[in-house]
Amino acid sequence: MKYLRTTLGPKSKSELGMILPHEHVFVDLRTPDQPGYAEADIDDVVRLMAPEIERIKKLGVTALVECSTGGVGRRADIDLAVSLATDFPIVVPTGNYREPWIPEWVRHASEKELEAWMLRELTEQIDETGFQAGWIKLSAGDDGMTALETKILRAAARAAAQTDAVIGSHTIRGRVVMDQLDIIEAEGYRADRFISIHTQEEKDFALNVAVAERGAWIEYDHVGRGGDNEVAELVIKALEAGCGDRLLLSHDRGWFDPAQPKGGIPKPYTHLSTVLLPELKRRGIDDGTLMRLTHDNPFEAFAR
């Protein structure tokens, strides 16, 4: 049986309902060498973000995927604190972001060392939190992978192949996604265990379809950030192109930002439930399809 690996332990499909596959509870977009990077009082984060979690719980959301990875302020201890305060499972990644958001230790580590680090977090625990990483989050430069980003991807593919973990990457251009899939397959892993994050940023829709046809997940994660009509039309276009079994929807919203006074003002995770899904239904998308997009697909993408 497959499980979603969360802050509250493994969760089976029968224990879950709607899942948001791309959000942030805590993120620091400053580079790791900046003063105060990823520093915050845990109680302050809980105070700001717990109400946002409670809002989506009332809407039937049962889990959320944290997409803050190494290099952009991943704080698994903070994710755990928010999770415990709300009794809400959060899926936290291992891995690291792209240049220049790469800590010195990652820059100098060998592929074998990076593989061992990710494998340990996937099979044992993240730091001393007591819970396992649920997936691997990476990124690639907009114009192609650097040598360092390629090294991280190869290590990730090897760790993922031993655990069946999904690899998700912030990658803007579809041709770069194809290059990443080539590397993953060359390392002996599979395209169907890859998520093309921010697929909507690739404006050549044929490349969206090509990524899905190769077996990877495509993710439209600008719900509530893009125009509602634009997002609805893109989702329907993907469904009509036969991509419904490989499509994920989310907001890429939140979050507590330690660079802002008091963490800033979070943007809610509610727009998918309150606006987009009713709009898709109004446009003729049936309940079974909406269930697949918001319940089945996220579970299948992240469970292992």
Automatic annotation (TrEMBL):
Residue positions, PTM N6-carboxylysine: 137
InterPro entries (alphabetical): Metal_Hydrolase, Phosphotriesterase
Cofactor entry: a divalent metal cation
Pfam families, sorted: PTE
Residue sites binding Zn(2+) 1 per the record: 22, 24, 137, 252
GO MF annotation: an example: zinc ion binding
Binding site for Zn(2+) 2: 137, 170, 198
Record's cofactor remark: Binds 2 divalent metal cations per subunit.
PROSITE patterns in UniProt: PHOSPHOTRIESTERASE_2
Stretch forming the signal peptide: none
The entry's keywords: Hydrolase, Metal-binding
Family to which the UniProt record says this protein belongs: Belongs to the metallo-dependent hydrolases superfamily. Phosphotriesterase family.
UniProt xrefs under PANTHER family: PHOSPHOTRIESTERASE-RELATED, PHOSPHOTRIESTERASE-RELATED PROTEIN
Name of this chain's protein: Phosphotriesterase-related protein
Organism for this UniProt entry: Rhizobium esperanzae
